[in-house]
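hey so u asked for the seq, here:
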Amino acid sequence: MGSNGKGRFVFLLGLMALACQPVSRPSPTAPLSPFPSPKATAAPDPSWFRDAVLYLIFVRSFADHDGDGIGDLRGIIDRLDYLQGLGVTAIWLMPIYPSPSDHGYDVMEHFDVRPEYGTITDLRALVEAAHARGMRVLLDFVPSHLSSQHPLFRDAFGRPDSPYSGWFLWLNEAHTQYLAFDGVTSMPRFNHRNPEVVRYLTRVARFWLEQGVDGFRVDNATFPPKAFFSELRTAVRAIRPDALLLGEVWQRDVPALSEYFDRFDALFDFSLYHVLMGSPDRNGDGLLAGQGPPALLSDLFEEEAARFPPTGMAVRFLSNHDTNRLATKLGGDPDRLRLAAALWSALPGPLQLYYGEEIGMRGQKGGPPAWDNYRREPMDWYAAGEGPGQTTWFRPPDRWNRPDDGISVEEEEKDPASLLNTYRRLLRLRATTPALREGDFALLPLEAPAPGPWGFVRRAGDQTVVAIFNFAQEPLPATILAFPFTAPALRDLWSGQVFPSAQAGQPYTVTLPGAGAMLLAAP
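ran it, structure tokens below
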């Protein structure tokens, strides 16, 4: 399942009984191998994405190069070393096109860059700089609708004889009422049954591929018909056989989600998101917040193994620009934030990280007129909220992220126990451990008090990692019913702690800290 194409579940059988010493909370300073040297890997298809770490950037909020307080493409270039040091291998840019809104999903011109962000030349420079570091670049592609201020729609509105009249979905003969995305009249929907619309949108995709980007995150992929995506995929492949199409299909139901793999190379795993995080608009209601039985995860992964195609890539994520931020959903609990990072980084398939998630930025949906801007606040680079590259465009009195709150790159940079350095270490561990990066995935049968420990096994070649996670607040024992390999000793890759020998097929017991994790492997 997921990214490696092998993840059919193998259930380990056995008995139980052997006990080891209880463990203390993992040390954040255990040594790890350095990142492998970056390289731009050529691929004849989008398989380069199978083990990617994708970083989602709201350009307006990320980094400001020209000093106007608004993030821009050159600002991202300035921060590529930061992203590479974090472990990022690909970046996804929210819409960069001219638009009347902050978010940019109501596109007003499909073949240009919004002036605040820079120029097409700046985009090319960003792509070249990213490629030089072995990183890929994805653009947000919005095929379901455009802005009501777009010249195409303005020509068609109220003019049934317009050459673009058939490009939209009208509700009256005068063409003054129309279907719109989510009922928002500033975003009229395209008529994808019109071949001219299909040709136009595929031309848009080809144009940006010709600027060097590596593919697209496709917004609102549930609305356009399947035939449209088939033509889009064919057009994209004709230009770049290795270009990625990543679909946003917000479906909690695994069977419904799986149906979209025949038109996309990868899909966001919204089914997993809802189990781990609960509602995108509420806090403290998911498994990572200690709510619900871990058996939900086992049921989910079993169903995904049965439903997802072997070549389908499921992107695992904990928050994005449309959800309350991870730190807010988990109440800022440092142990649970580390637990979330450890689980996320050990899962199979591509991973997606939302900008600022790695430092614990907070945010949740606000009221009018800002709404989601509270989930998309400026990246916190400095303790004081001021400095080179800091964006300042959104600073209302009720914002979530403030100066000297302990949450910034500057404040966390030199603290080895910080959340930022936790993410760096976990992603370095993933990059240098084949079993975690590309290994098979199997559920790990445990005997443990409810609703605490849950785990899985990752295996690549002769390397095996046993990953166990405790969703309860208190320390709990967990007995692995049949340990998957024999070793003279075991080492927790995260804490560096060493444990007694293990025998394949025999039970093995460990005690996990509350909201803690273990990644056990042979030394």
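The CA atoms of residues 166 and 194 lie 7 Å apart. The longest strand covers residues 453-460.
lmk if thats what u needed
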